[in-house]
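User: I need a structural model of Engulfment and cell motility protein 3 from Mesitornis unicolor for a docking pre-check later this week. Nothing fancy, just the predicted structure tokens so I can convert them on my end. Input:
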Amino acid sequence: WSLPNAERYALQYADGRQTYITESNRGEIKNGSILRLTTSPDQEAERLYSGIQSNNSDVKTDSLKKLASLSQDVTFAQEFINRNGLKKIFTIVEEGNALLTCRYMAVSLHTGREMLAHTLKAFMELMEHDFVSWETLSAAFIKKIMSYVNMNAVDASVQQLSLSILENMVPTSRLLFELVKKEVTLDRLLTHLQVTNAQLQLKAMALLIALLLAATDAERRDMMDRLREKNIRQFIHKNIIHSSEPLGDEMAHYLYVLQSVSLNLCERRMRTSMDPYSQEQRELLQSLRQTAFESESETPASNFSTERRRSLCAKEFRKLGFMNNSNPAEDLRRAPPGLLALDNMVYFSRHTPNAYSRFILENSSREDKHECPFARSSIQLTLILCEILHVGEPCSETAQAFYPMFFGQDHFFEELFCICIQLVNKTWKEMRATQEDFDKVLQVVREQITRTLALKPTSLELFKTRVNTLNYSEILKLRQTERLHQEETLAVPVLELRERLKPELLELIRQQRLLHLCEGTLFRKISSRMVNKLWYCRLSPNRKVLHYGDVEEGGHSPPIESLPEKIPVADMKLLLVGKECPHTKEKSSGKQNKDVLELAFSIVYDVEEYCLNFIAPTRYEFCLWTDGLNVLLGKEMASERTQTDLDVLLSMELKLRLLDLENISIPDTPPPVPKPPSNLNFCYDFS
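Assistant: Understood. Predicted structure tokens for Engulfment and cell motility protein 3:
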């Protein structure tokens, strides 16, 4: 347009994040995007740099507000940081006490809080671009941020932002972790967790999780002991899991991480074999024998000769169910489960001595081949529980699956073991098992535990009731039903009917997938740090355009008009999943996260130059979205969910069609067609 001083102007998106158009991103402009003419990023940076130093409080507040908004743009952020703008932000933050007590430029308390909140937001956005290392921050600035978290009478928005800043800071360096851990005590974080403000509660939980993940094993153990003393589990169980408000995805993820970190404290014992020369471990082993047998023996073992005593001990260890009764330590050399199995047995014998004695004595009096070996069962059961609860596995970046009952109990793993070892004995009796059936019994017990955990019981009491109700005969019934269902659907005519029904049902699944895309989904942008931004994507009702755009936390199902970006379906060329996606290749410099790989997919559009990258919140969403996008691209639906849904629909449809044939066996070959009659003169003559 031949504007004079053209370098002072720039184009900017009018909607959404209002990013500046530069040489590097001009190719991403899509047809239909609305742009506006505005001052260039360097002019705007210069203006705001002056504005935030103004003596007029209104000008300063407006400049800080605009700065918080514009700092999301990488071009502007670069210009502002190049002018040493972060230094000015540090100054405002370091003068924060004056802002919060009305001593600053004679501003009102409300304006002071607002200025500080905008300053912290701008700082967060500028640091998000990774131009400046967190380690370069001044000690005075960091101390000031920590003081806002530690103060009582501070605005909630300022505390939320301060907690977020510390959460991002902790994983970046050991020095910063130690500083934050020392200044922001666990007691202080627990105080924030107990407020009614859900956002403040969430940010406090995020910082707690960041500290736990950055700590060494010994520090983590100390922190978890401290949290146990403060009854954090009971508090979470009562005030967060069972609060009147529904649990958000982010909080569910933090609870999953907290559960995972707690259970992983068992890993060290799980991976340590028993040392037969350790006095402490030998005493634990002997305590099992003494608790079970010495109370009933009238003559103390010390009165016997050494040979007699050794023979008596070996006999008692055999009754306890050790395979190697002369040297039971050999049974505990296998790791995993290692010493964790010994810890569980000792916990069971000390905390439920009656149940323990009953288990041992009951099996001592059975015939040899019918006795349930306590020690062997305990070792195998500990291994099964470690596998089911993923002990020793790294935390997933996206998982949200936690067990509510975990937070209702302090010694969760040990208490769960106590319930399950009694279940082993109960199932052993129900199956009338012998030593040869040992693996079979433990397989049934694994099934009983996993099926009950899938029901997400809210307390261990409820788990105990349900797992005991699911006895061996119930498991057999469930297996029988599943097997019958399988056999019923394998007859040749039924298989032919299945094939005929498939196209119609696949079309039904396609329509469901497209309807799900029209409803849309909230996705996360997973950055190298823990702060996650949200964006929403949905398909237009006419199924011709994908609309997407950034949204705030807590924003559910925004209308299509509020999503500024769009991709015409006609421009979509290809769907990439897992390792093929460009955003997983960018991340592969660090430790590649298996969970993110399983949830990542990208759409390649236009002339195969641009990609829209997704990380699905769950595997279910991943399947629905990849299926829906494949339908739009005219390809086959390839997810495992398609097969599951098709099987469910086929099973229902077949059951309805075969209702009239109940108890009638279906022949494999159709009945023979009778021969044609000798003449066809049996028709009525209409003439």
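Before docking, keep this in mind: The CA atoms of residues 3 and 9 lie 9 Å apart.
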